[in-house]
Design a protein that fits this description.
The complex is a heterotetramer of chains A (203), B (611), C (302) and D (99).
Chain A (H helix, E strand, L loop, with lengths): L2 E3 L10 H30 L1 H8 L4 H26 L3 H31 L8 H32 L7 H26 L12
Chain B lengths: L4 E3 L5 E2 L6 E2 L5 H6 L4 H31 L17 E2 L2 E2 L1 H36 L8 H20 L24 H30 L12 H33 L27 H35 L6 H15 L14 H29 L8 H24 L1 H7 L3 H31 L5 H27 L19 H31 L57 E3 L5 E3 L6
Antiparallel strand pairs in B: 2-3, 4-5, 6-7
Chain D lengths: L5 H27 L13 H21 L8 H22 L3
The chains are: A mainly alpha (203), B mainly alpha (611), C alpha+beta (302), D mainly alpha (99).
The complex binds heme-A (2 copies), dinuclear copper ion and copper (II) ion.
Dinuclear copper ion binds next to loops of chain C.
Chain lengths: 203, 611, 302, 99
């Protein structure tokens, strides 16, 4: 008996990893669909509560984070491009920036969270904050889940053998853009529910 | 790497993703525990899920005992039950709902789904599309171990203070949100097993789209592969919604948030440490999210088996599938409609009755593709030449019971009829007719059919038939009377029906059901005996014991690492049985036109020897 | 013990006569629901015998025989089309038939003008029911006053609440009257199940749902909880007593007397109005008044 | 993006990046502005609605260019279309016909 390797070209023309990542992203969209759909329901039932509570959020920090994350999306796309063209220096450069952006995002989030805690705002404080911590928490976990392989790839690229698996980088890139994309929705939904000059009914 | 590579040394593990050989013997751990080989993962899924079947069944028998003989100590086992949940061996109300909850959760999340997609997905897909392994072998391994971990977490519930999850397998809040640690573990387990499903599903989709053997178009795939493929799509799209629902439930349960908790509940959770729910949430929201997954999930539990049954039926009737494409479109239709009918579980839940109308109509429509499938199966055996192997008997049993289960579904699909039978034993009867009579029979059919391929040994047919007859007869005796209880108004999940006067006349039925259930349970041991016996002493299986056409029968039994001895090419559709121009009554997919197969492992052309 | 549990052959055959297992129906629409069940049941029975007949016949007729080769055939589109179309038509029929009944029993706008309007609250583990009392109006509800001893949260500051009658576990209604129940729960989900009336509706905390029925027969009937609500779920039994209008009026005034310490000679506003309602459309006052209460409780912070 | 050179691609990416930035600024500006009463109530759905509309444009840009959906196999579009369809099914049932 013998082992047979049947590694012919992917029938669909899309590399396995990339196809699988897209399928996974479809599934991720459904995951956040659950959150967003119920957000709409519960917000509609508690509009005043949601608008009032959202006042305490710091939209400038969120704006900073949006910029950071979009920037990291750009550098991620550039690093995919670099490794495809075999440009090791550029890959390392862009990947490093991406990772730094990701960490910046997390650090800003950390300050946001601790400032909430110091004002005695916790997930169980009210429904809006439950949402805030739930969605940003899951988003933050996705960020962490992206940083780990990024760091790993970057480290590998500094070894003697280097890192050349451009499909994997591309797949990771897809994931990272998705993480960015979730934030693009979270930003207006959580932080920008009302004009700044808006005077809330209570408080 | 566009052309396949043949490697001849058995002992050398071939790592497809690195393209180099590692020259060491596989240790026990890498071979059996952390193997990424799809056949090993299939075996792992099969054995652990069958083990869970024993557990889940044992829980069912325990709860059956209480229903038949309320207040009487459970014989033999009773004395081992801890005093907290059972006094003097008598099952207490708290334990009873834990049993119901865990019975169903184990059966659904740890038995049927893993067998239907974990076992058959891993077993069938690579072999039947003629490739060496899954597209993502490591993800495959991960999927199994997440499942295993989830199993341990779920089972741990029984050993923590307050006992296991006790809000039904549907885990409706607010009840589930005020539960204790066992309930939390249940939530975590569901999340983990859902994650495992997603990983599995994404792997299957990729494999089917990317790794088909040359010559195999989508419409050359056997129905099993089609069914599992579409099921995987359901899993990928449905399961994450469950994951988000249980994430919110986890927050409610552990952090005392209020996604599903309305204002001012007069009970606080005994586990809340003085923390009060802030309110503002909606309990029904959870039900929507839950059923948005769990209705597709019931099709996740039946579609793969519909595929398996089609393959088995065609092979043993020696006849092409009647309406191959219609079968595929029916599967697609069921899958699509499956996403827009979830509300039929919630007719009485207090959602807008307008939605009730919508969901009623879509649910009734979903019976049409199911009807098409049933009729096509009948068309398949029509003018066939039926062999009554165990696998085929199980497949026919599947059809027989699925018809009954499906028809009872139509009653409930009619919302006004559901008013009365909702949450009664009528539902329980339906569940078991489709899940035991349907899914489990389909799984048994698949196990008897593919065991020779997977393990290289032939299961004992005589005991197999005994297994079938005992199961089929006692299955019907156990579950058919539940329709009667349901029509009588007997509620689900009640610890002692004798509280109600109008249920007292039904007590003899409860006793009868229990006795039948015990016999049914013990008849399943035949299967376990058969498997263990065969594994050790059974006769070796030939390469193609059933003279079937699909590619897996081209590989040796059991298939080596890499599955096939030579690159596979596909020449025809999978069900070319009894072609009038051929002497043989089958024409395998892998034979080139004019080629005949003369010996176990080599193929020779009619005119000249190619090797 | 075990032998006694095994039914006789005729009893086994009797399994197929599904309809006889229903508990006695005592509501006006109950028999229509039963008829719908029967309709689907007979269709199903027909399909069952048809498919089983075909299945068994094929299984016998086409079992393997030597020298007989199976028929090489891939199917026929016309046949395929026919057996798609036929069930579709059949199902359309079932759907239409069902929808009428569904609207009648559950649509909020089809709830009939109430003769008796009450509120029922499910809790772990029991049912409690509130009658508006002689003044025919429910006292205001204050969610913050909801406690285990005041499950409806009847506002102690509201005079209209003083005469409200609250009964725990066993409720009384008149026959041949439209009884409209505002249903809710105070802790977890429950389900208000009256087998004899063919009524079932989940009680959802934070939400008021209207349920109605019209009983036709005097007697005592059981009320069950049909939604898992904890370890005491099985024991969440209630009782509904159906009385003639006269007995009901008497019962009501006795209860009011007990509550207020005053006796009422003749039964008050409420049941009077229901007696004359058939031709007097102004009697809807009661309904309006109660809708108001439910508004204050139903809509949250909006 | 096989048909573009490296520099062309880079340019494309930068365009998208600056487009995203501009839209982000627009989102914030829109959130600060006051709109006529007839457009809808502030703090109700108006501002959040505008925010989401802009977000959809941004997301499409990310998906089409950064994630290469514009150039990739048409299969992959289903991975976005189908979940989005299901999102609408769920949201429709929950909100339009909802509780
Ligand atoms: C494998 C699992 C499986 C399958 C396949 C199905 C199939 C169907 N189910 Fe079932 N269902 C469950 C598993 C499944 N169900 C479970 C587990 C629950 C309970 C969950 C819980 O609450 O715990 C449930 C509950 C459930 C309910 C909710 C009841 C309630 O709680 O009140 C409803 C209501 O509509 C329903 C309907 C249907 C319908 C219409 C089908 C249809 O798909 C059936 C279609 C099949 C046929 C119709 C038969 C074959 C066709 C013919 C022979 C052709 C001719 C027929 C005609 C012309 C009528 N199911
Ligand atoms: C695939 C799914 C599946 C399967 C196979 C079964 C199998 C069985 N089920 Fe299950 N059941 C469900 C899915 C399933 N069930 C679901 C989804 C529910 C709804 C739960 C809810 O309300 O939330 C349910 C609910 C349910 C109820 C209603 C509980 C209630 O509402 O109070 C009952 C009652 O009779 C019951 C009985 C049985 C019986 C007797 C079996 C028998 O077939 C079991 C046969 C036994 C075995 C196969 C094991 C044999 C074991 C031994 C012989 C002992 C050896 C032991 C060891 C080695 C440990 N089930
Ligand atoms: Cu209340 Cu069950
Ligand atoms: Cu369903």
């Amino acid at each position: 008996m013998s082992g047979l390797v049947l590694d012919h070209e992917p029938v669909s023309g899309i590399p396995h990893g990339k196809l699988a990542m897209w399928v996974f992203l479809a599934s991720e969209i459904m995951f956040f669909t659950g959150f967003f759909a119920s957000f709409i329901v519960l917000r509609n039932a508690n509009i005043d509560l949601f608008t009032n509570s959202a006042q305490a959020l710091n939209k400038w920090l969120a704006l900073l984070n949006t910029i950071v994350l979009i920037g990291s999306s750009l550098t991620m796309a550039l690093s995919v491009l670099a490794i495809e063209k075999g440009n090791k220096r550029n890959f390392q450069l862009y990947m490093t920036i991406t990772i730094l952006c990701a960490f910046t995002f997390l650090i800003v989030k950390y300050f946001e969270y601790t400032s909430k805690f110091s004002h005695h705002i916790y997930p169980w404080t009210d429904l809006f904050y439950s949402y805030y911590f739930l969605t940003t928490g899951f988003h933050g976990m996705h960020v962490i889940g992206g940083i780990i392989p990024m760091v790993w790839m970057l480290m590998r690229s500094f070894t003697k053998k280097g890192y050349h698996n451009h499909v994997r980088v591309e797949v990771l890139g897809l994931y990272w853009h998705f993480v960015d994309l979730v934030w693009i929705f979270l930003f207006p939904v959580l932080y920008l529910m009302f004009p700044t000059s808006y005077v809330p009914p209570i408080h | 790497m566009s052309s396949p590579v043949l490697v001849s040394d058995t002992h050398h593990d071939v790592h497809t993703d690195h393209g180099h050989h590692e020259h060491h013997k596989q240790s026990f751990i890498t071979k059996y525990i952390f193997s990424t080989d799809h056949k090993m993962v299939a075996k792992q899924f099969m054995l652990s899920a069958l083990f869970f079947l024993l557990i889940g069944g044992a829980l069912a028998l325990l709860l059956r005992w209480q229903l038949a003989y309320p207040g009487e100590a459970v014989p033999l086992i009773g004395q081992f039950l801890p005093e907290l949940i059972a006094s003097d061996g008598v099952i207490q109300p708290g334990l009873f709902i834990q049993l119901t909850t865990m019975h169903a959760s184990v059966m659904i999340f740890f038995v049927i789904i893993p067998l239907a997609v974990g076992l058959f997905g891993n077993l069938c897909i690579p072999l039947m599309i003629g490739t060496d392994d899954m597209a993502l072998p490591f993800i495959n391994l991960l999927s199994f171990w997440l499942y295993f971990l989830a199993g341990i977490v779920a089972a741990a519930g029984f050993f923590v203070q307050g006992g296991a999850g006790a809000s039904g397998w549907t885990g409706y809040p607010p009840l589930s949100a005020i539960g204790g640690l066992g309930q939390t573990l249940w939530i975590v387990a569901v999340f983990l097993v859902g994650f495992s499903s997603i990983l599995g599903g994404m792997n299957y989709v990729t494999t089917v789209l990317n790794k088909r053997a040359p010559g195999m178009k989508m419409f050359d795939m056997p129905l099993s592969v089609w069914a599992i493929f579409i099921t995987s799509v359901l899993m990928v799209l449905g399961t994450p919604v469950l994951a988000s629902a249980v994430s919110m439930l986890f927050f409610d349960n552990v952090l005392h948030t209020s996604f599903f908790m309305p204002d001012n509940l007069t009970v606080a959770s005994p586990y809340a440490n003085g923390m009060k729910h802030s309110g503002g949430g909606q309990p029904i929201l959870f039900q929507h999210l839950f059923w948005f997954y769990s209705h597709p999930a019931v099709y996740i539990m039946i579609l793969p088996l519909m595929g398996v049954v089609s393959d088995v039926l065609s092979t043993f009737s020696r006849k092409p599938i009647y309406g191959y494409k219609a079968m595929i479109f029916a599967i697609m239709a069921i899958a699509f409609l499956g996403f827009i009918v979830w509300g039929h579980h919630m007719f009485q839940s207090g959602m807008n009755p307008l939605l009730g109308t919508t969901f009623m109509l879509s649910t009734i429509v979903i019976a049409v593709p199911s009807a098409i499938k049933v009729f096509n199966w009948l068309g398949t055996i029509w003018r066939g030449s039926i062999r009554y192997t165990t696998a085929n008997m199980m497949a026919l049993g599947f059809i027989a019971t699925f018809i009954i289960g499906g028809l009872s579904g139509v009653f409930m699909a009619s919302a006004p009829v559901d008013i009365y039978i909702h949450d009664t034993y009528f539902i329980v009867a339906h569940i078991h007719y489709v899940l035991f009579g349907g899914s489990l029979f389909g799984i048994y059919a698949g196990i008897y059919y593919w065991f020779p391929k997977l393990f290289g040994k032939m299961l004992n047919e005589i005991w197999g038939r005994r297994h079938f007859f005992w199961t089929f007869i006692f299955f019907n005796l156990t579950f058919f009377p539940m329709h009667i209880l349901g029509v009588g108004g007997h509620m689900r999940r009640i610890h002692d029906p004798n509280v109600y006067d109008f249920l007292k006349p039904f007590q003899p039925w409860n006793e009868f059901i229990t006795i039948m259930a015990i016999i049914l349970g013990f008849s399943q041991l035949i299967l376990f005996g058969n498997i263990i016996y065969t594994w050790i002493w059974g006769p070796k299986a030939p390469k193609n014991p059933w003279n079937a056409n699909t590619l897996e029968w081209h590989a040796p039994s059991p298939p080596p690492h890499g599955n096939f001895l030579a690159p596979v090419r596909v020449y025809r559709s999978p069900y070319e049985f009894s072609h009038p121009d051929r002497a043989d009554d089958f024409h395998p997919q892998w034979l080139a036109p004019g080629e005949v197969e003369i010996e176990e492992t080599t193929t020779v052309s009619e005119t000249q020897n190619t090797h | 013990m075990i032998l006694a549990a095994i039914p006789s052959f005729t009893e086994l055959l009797g399994m197929f006569d599904m309809l006889k297992w229903f508990p006695e129906n005592v509501s006006t629409f109950g028999h229509e629901l039963d008829n719908l069940f029967a309709f689907i049941y007979y269709i199903s029975l027909g399909i069952f015998f048809l498919t089983y007949g075909v299945l068994i016949a094929f299984m016998i007729k086409y079992r393997r025989k030597d020298n007989v080769k199976a028929y090489y055939y891939h199917g026929n589109n016309l046949v395929e089309f026919t057996w798609t179309l036929l069930p579709t038509i059949l199902f359309a029929g079932i759907g239409l038939y069902s929808d009428g009944m569904w609207e009648k029993t559950k649509y909020e706008k089809k709830v009939p003008v109430p003769d008796v309007e009450v509120q029922v609250m499910g809790y772990q583990y029991g049912w409690t029911c509130r009658y508006p009392g002689p003044d025919g109006t429910f006292g205001r509800q204050d969610r913050n006053q909801m406690t285990t001893s005041n499950r409806f949260g009847i506002d102690s500051a509201d005079a209209a609440g003083k005469d409200d009658i609250v009964k725990d576990g066993s409720f009384t209604f008149p026959i041949n009257r439209n009884i409209v129940v505002g249903l809710s729960a105070s802790d977890v989900l429950h389900s208000f199940f009256l087998p004899n009336f063919r009524v079932k509706q989940d009680a959802v905390p934070g939400q008021w749902i209207k349920v109605w029925f019209n009983g036709t027969k005097v007697g005592k009937y059981e009320l069950a909880c049909a939604e898992l609500c904890g370890s005491g779920h099985y024991n969440m039994r209630g009782e509904v007593t159906m009385l003639s209008q006269a007995d009901f009026d008497k019962w009501l005034s006795d209860e009011s007397a007990k509550k207020l310490g005053v006796s009422f000679a003749v039964s008050p506003v409420k049941s009077d109005s229901s007696a004359t309602k058939k031709n007097d459309s102004t009697a809807t006052v009661v309904a309006v008044a109660t809708t108001d209460t439910s508004k204050t409780t139903n809509k949250k912070s909006k | 993006m096989a048909h573009l050179t490296e520099t062309e691609t880079k340019k494309e990416y930068l365009k998208v990046f600056f487009g995203l930035m501009a839209l982000t600024v627009l989102t914030v500006v829109a959130a600060v502005l006051h709109f006529p009463e007839s457009w809808g109530k502030a703090g109700d759905t108006l501002h959040i609605g505008i925010g989401i509309l802009i977000a959809i444009v941004k997301v499409l840009m990310v998906i089409y260019i950064f994630m290469h959906l514009k150039f990739d196999h048409p299969y992959l579009r289903f991975m976005v279309i189908v979940p989005v369809f299901l999102f609408f099914v769920l949201t429709f049932a929950l909100n339009v016909l909802g509780p």
